[in-house]
Amino acid sequence: MDRLKAFAAAFAVLAALVLSGAPARAAVEVNIDQGAVQPLPIAIPGFTGGEARAQTLGADIARVVASDLERSGFFRPLDPNGFVEKNLDVNVQPRFPDWRVINAQALVNGAAVIEADGRLRVDFRIWDVFNEQQLQGLQFMSTPENWRRVAHKIADAVYKRLTGEEGYFDTRIVFVAESGPKTARVKRLEIMDQDGANPSYLTDGSYLVMTPRFSTTDQEITYMALRPDSARVYLFNIETGRQEILGSFPGVVFAPRFSPDGARVAFSVERGGNTDVYLMDLRTRTSTRLTTDPSIDTSPSFSPNGQQLVFNSDRGGQAQIYVMNLDGSGVRRISFGGGRYTTPVWSPRGDFIAFTKQTGGTFHIGVMKPDGSDERILTTSYLDEGPTWAPNGRVLMFGRETPGGGSRLWTVDISGRNPRPAPFPGAASDPAWSPLLK
């Protein structure tokens, strides 16, 4: 756990300073709510540096920034081989005609410097090429070892400046990594950066794991561990490696999820063929049963204000989505389409609820508003399931299985655009997206 603890704890942005003046209003911008979005051509040359190590870090930072922005589907980083102006100085205005000739609409350039005390300082600027004006200039400082996080923060800044929405690149994903034959599947918790870097196992594979979920306030996850003699829900502190059992309940405990303030966990307990939703206060360890219907009530997920829960239940004959107040009152059904609705999860922005839908032998990832209106299907596949939201409420990750193949992680924009495999090459399922790192 030492490397993981160092990754979780070491990064600190010591400065995030505007380099010159107030940012200009962007004439170049990406309208991400249009029906058909053409990716914005953007130039991201390697950040300059003094000594050899700084030059290498500058090139690596620019590469990661470009990769982050390209995967969003809203940007098209241009081939550096076509750049006319070389070795840009971050303190000198670019030669804009050299960038217009290659049709760059935006330009991001920067410099990486190793300070005398060993810290990494990165300055960067965002330019509107056609209007020949600076849109933003920032400075970040960290340790050289955390250069990737600096790159993700720069990508977040560019994304926000040019789309108007918060970025989501300085985040991590926890998921179930799968290996071995289906008859003897090994399932381990694994964590990685959202771009697939820094993968690390959290469990050893000696028991099955399911449904990992991030706390929104701390470096903590909750998950279900299935052993031959028990099924329990655990709390796992990523920074310290400390684990503890959520509680002792007669029956099978599963599908845990944190409240927005991190003080409570909602989960399901199956006993005697009946499954109900429970709520536990992590400070007092007292639990409350919220549903009492003789059916399967499971997959609870909190609204962003923590006052409601969405869950799925087959109380109407097949699995549908319901919403209730935090004390279990006011239960109301919100899904009425054909098929089975499962694994609902509330958007961090509160505007949509994502879900898995099964119609016949086909699975979909979809979204609907909290009152059940405006249902939209985003993906269709042999088996798509288990959506999780990026912290900006714009992108979903989910598991996709193909006939005869293993499950892979995929992402899709909330508009249904830009479906693509996530940057993890192995078999994986049950993803959970972290909040923005601090």
* Individual helix count: 4
Quickly name the level 1 CATH class of the largest domain. Answer: Mainly Beta
Question: What is the molecular shape?
Answer: globular
Low-pLDDT stretches are 1-18, 20-26
Largest sheet: 6 strands, mixed
**Which value, in Å, is the CA radius of gyration?**
23 Å
Helix/strand/pairing class, anyone? Answer: mainly beta
Give the strand tally. 30
Alpha carbon gap, first and last residue: 19 Å
Task: Name the CATH homologous superfamily of the largest domain.
Answer: TolB, C-terminal domain
Mean pLDDT: 91
CATH architect. name of the largest domain: 6 Propeller
Strand content: 35-45%
Helicity range of the residues? 10-25%
Oligomer: single chain
The number of domains: 2
Task: Could you tell me the CATH topology label of the largest domain.
Answer: Neuraminidase
Task: Write structural notes for this entry.
The protein is mainly beta. The chain folds into two domains: 2-163, Rossmann fold, CATH 3.40.50.10070; 172-433, Neuraminidase (6 Propeller), CATH 2.120.10. It is 12% helix and 42% strand. The protein has four helices and 30 strands. The chain has helices at residues 2-10, 52-71, 96-100, 147-163, and strands spanning 40-43, 48-49, 75-77, 106-114, 120-128, 133-142, 172-179, 186-193, 200-201, 208-214, 220-227, 230-237, 243-245, 252-258, 264-271, 274-281, 286-289, 297-302, 308-313, 320-325, 332-333, 340-346, 353-359, 362-368, 376-381, 383-389, 395-401, 407-413, 420-421, 427-433. Strands 1, 2, 3, 4, 5 and 6 form a six-stranded mixed β-sheet that branches. The protein is globular. It starts with a helix and ends in a 5-residue tail after the last strand. Mean pLDDT is 91; it is low at 1-18 and 20-26.
